[in-house]
């Protein structure tokens, strides 16, 4: 990894696999750069182990039988970044005005190290100055009391524990607000809306053992090698058993192609790699609905063909299809059909368990292959090949990520994933489930304990009964609605439990301008970022313990808990000395704010802070089925599972069945601009960042070193637009003539990306995204599909 951007960045295809020595080297480098070479290595041995601490990077499942080292390159980076010996202390804040820090890069702000003391912005000096915790709570409480609860937003980034999250949502609701936007609103909200409609579960149904039982994995729009590398072990084991992996991705991502397990001495020494994907389909961004329709069409028409040929047989024609033009389809169908050669689809499952099949099947039959090919960017042969593998497999696991959810048609894309699964009963049996790969380490869990703007998802009556108050029933604001409310002047205060909202949200320029007009900004954080440097009239920066640190309270060191992507709960115990004596834990900060704002209540805030077991008892009292015997099961190896009816084929939907939901179209209406030189932009993460946290300037697997200011383009588009590889360009939003948004000074990188598509890094390109450019139902920003113009620039790219 590269700590600083380079004047002469390097773009050179990476030949190695994911994992391997490249990954081992990267871990060593970051530990030494954060000055933790030895203690860091010792610490990492306890990552994701029972009685250890749960990684602060991604949410991937933690197995009961652990590997000797249960961490990956990017998990190690996240750990090193948190346990760094660097400090953003009083001396640092004495030296720098916020107006100056506004000009700093994201990487440089966080690289100052851990925040050490509570601070208040001082208008005279334009600096953050130290204050006592008492003063901070007192003034924030006073400010909140003076505001209308409708005007206050309580944001959560997906890292906070179940304990903190439960307390935080309770605080917001007792204060009178359901404005609980969270990072999930910009991430898997499309799943949170679509999955309940389709299968009556708000999260994916897959568990780790599905990898041991699956015959085939459909891997859609997720970058495992960077975003959830520990899953590569599960994929590798499945491949070794003979399972086929069928990948749909806009780019050829190295982690989905080849992997060397850094923990396998034989693979490391011999360099023998595991080929991950058996079939790799480079779909256009936004083309997944069309691609999956193609697969479904092939399966449905093959099934139809068998029926026709069966009828002809009955008619005494010796198995020769009545319609000769159907012969090829019959042969295809026969090659993938059930043992009795009678069907391709699982009609028993469809009949017993689903609703809406006929409408869906006729939509699939109606789409012409030409159109499916044009929209998906795949050929008919490719879609039929995928269908053949799907049809021949008894148990198919479907895995997906942001390329599918951050779309204008994100909810309908998720419906489509389920539609395909339902054709052959690929939900709710060993090896066959839906896996929505979550982002932040506890983003899924926060929802489970009430962080949501949607009051219908929270047991409000229970909260009312337990804590003797009347919870607000109105629908709160999601992340994009919070941006709008800030821009309209309706939101007056933003309380942030972690995260970097200004950089993560769309419409950067207008949101930043609105942010500066807020009355109150309060940031609970570990490291300095842009959302702290820009601020409201009254602004606090409150530093907290990280999950890896020992959390000592009245009854001794405490544990916290999280929920993984495969819906298992895990306890986590901090291991190292806190970064500063003045840090408070997140539960202590939330309790301090709540007490100062709400005054006397029946909630035993102090008792909760003194003993987190009592918070878990409160969680169990609120959600008795989900968290049964919570404290007892906290450190169960492999975690304890969350009950999910869909996993047992019980469908808690409006129809009582799993629903085929037919997307209304293949592709959204994107641009009304009259120009034709429009490309479709997807924003990406590099291998050297965690969301807005930029560790460095290396995207090893994609061969980019020393810069993030680039745009990946297809060679044909580069030529057609009169550009050249390495040329400096600007990007402009191409939705309509009125919507003008620009990001300037990027460098063209010729890359193997489908024609008509381009890609660039998040968060640098967030200013291009208009606020209203989101999925209609879930309001997830369409970060993976934006029409843009790419034009020559006079500006030299500067990171
Ligand atoms: N190291 C590291 N780990 C992380 C994070 C991080 O930033 N760094 N972030 C965490 C978070 S919060 C999240 S949500 C996850 C994100 O993890 P991912 O879900 O992997 O999200 P992205 O990294 O944005 O990449 C999306 C993938 O989709 C592909 N893609 C883009 N558009 C399309 C499309 O329309 N169709 C198809 N089929 N493919 C497409 C891209 O080529 C890319 O491979 O990772 C989590 N883990
Ligand atoms: N263009 C574009 N935009 C996107 C995306 C995209 O793919 N493309 N992805 C979206 C997605 S999937 C997500 S999840 C969001 C992410 O949005 P956020 O969750 O808001 O952003 P992060 O970058 O994860 O937040 C990083 C900050 O969290 C703080 N932090 C770290 N650890 C802790 C902790 O233990 N406690 C506390 N209190 N604070 C801590 C640090 O101060 C750090 O600077 O961004 C979204 N934005
Ligand atoms: Mo995310």
Automatic annotation (TrEMBL):
Alphabetical UniProt keywords: 4Fe-4S, Iron, Iron-sulfur, Metal-binding, Molybdenum, Oxidoreductase
What family does the database annotate? Belongs to the prokaryotic molybdopterin-containing oxidoreductase family.
Q: Name one GO biological process term.
A: cellular respiration
Q: Boundaries of each Molybdopterin oxidoreductase domain copy?
A: 114-522
Q: Does the keyword Metal-binding apply?
A: yes
In Swiss-Prot or TrEMBL terms, this protein is called: Formate dehydrogenase
Q: Which InterPro entries match?
A: Asp_de-COase-like_dom_sf, MopB_CT_YdeP, MoPterin_dinucl-bd_dom, Mopterin_OxRdtase, Mopterin_OxRdtse_a_bac, Prok_molybdopt-oxidoreductase, YdeP_MopB
Q: Recorded GO terms, molecular function?
A: 4 iron, 4 sulfur cluster binding; formate dehydrogenase (NAD+) activity; molybdenum ion binding; molybdopterin cofactor binding
Enumerate the residue ranges of region (Disordered).
Answer: 1-23
Molybdopterin dinucleotide-binding domain residues: 679-785
Q: Where is the composition biased (Basic and acidic residues)?
A: 1-10
What cofactor does this chain's UniProt record say it requires?
[4Fe-4S] cluster; Mo-bis(molybdopterin guanine dinucleotide)
Entry keyword 4Fe-4S: yes
Q: Which Gene3D superfamilies match?
A: 3.40.50.740, Dimethylsulfoxide Reductase, domain 2
Q: Name one GO cellular component term.
A: oxidoreductase complex
